[in-house]
Amino acid sequence: MVKWKCRATIQKGEVSFVHSIPQNHVVRVVVNAVVNKINDSSTSIQIETFAETNFINMVTAKIAVIITDPQNNDVVSKTLTHEQYVFYNPTRTGTYSIRYVDEYKLNWNLYVTLSSYQIDISSENTVNVLGSDGKLRRVLYKDGKVYIYPSETHKSSFLKESLSLNNTFNNKTLSLKELQTQFYDEELKRNVRDLKDYRIGDSIHFKDEVASIEYDPNSNHTLIGFKDQDNDIVNWVFKDNLLDRYKVGDVIELKLNVVEETEEFENIDLIKTFQDSGEVAESIDNYLITQ
Prior knowledge:
This protein has 291 residues and is mainly beta. The protein folds into two domains: 3-148, Jelly Rolls (Sandwich), CATH 2.60.120; 157-286, CATH 2.40.50. It is built from three helices and 20 strands. The chain has helices spanning 157-161, 176-182, 269-276; strands spanning 3-4, 13-23, 26-35, 44-52, 63-68, 74-80, 85-88, 94-102, 109-121, 126-130, 136-142, 145-148, 184-185, 190-191, 203-209, 212-216, 221-227, 233-239, 251-262, 265-268. The two termini are 39 Å apart. 25% of the residues are buried. Mean pLDDT is 76; it is low at 1-28, 119-123 and 130-134.
């Protein structure tokens, strides 16, 4: 299932979602962006799109993005993973078609912005984009990904005021759903790479019930699934065959650590280590809490 979101900051033109076609287990979403003006000396017209899925799902998700110009030429064709982005500066006016193709039928939030804007480069990688809505978005572009800075209200007041790390590990547990909530910024209405009540160096006591379990003999990985807020399965990947140790309904407790993703953005060590290693799974015993 694909979820659509349009975050448009428009001075000239419009963005509209056309249709979603499930076809041969492939989900196709089409978005039209109508460009009525191209670049001039004072402003830049740009079509921007990026895709979000649940980044705490360790299985890499991919979605294809194709941008077609008004003369039916494909001007962009790229496969994206979570948080990767595509920019295109239109060279002519008319209707541009942005198509998304997902072979895995995952949950995606698709963001499309057709904007007329001015850019202020405040550092090497940080850009302040002023949209026609008058709001300034502080965004980090790094290593082919886009990171949205959290709002000022996202981090809990306790962490803002405290100089010491929190000490909630022993008396608070988080399920997968609760861990998701930690990354959700209520003011921005979106996920950010920042936890509300934890910061880099803190530990998280994770505790949840196994909703699915599957062993892949080709990779020698076991996928243990937990239910997220939409009751979809989020898979965490561990080394070796664990089918003789765990079954659906079992409760697993793990000690996770908050680590730096990049430039003070946050991640969980289990997920970051898997991604940084090229998806080489670790032993679950490295994280397991035993009673």
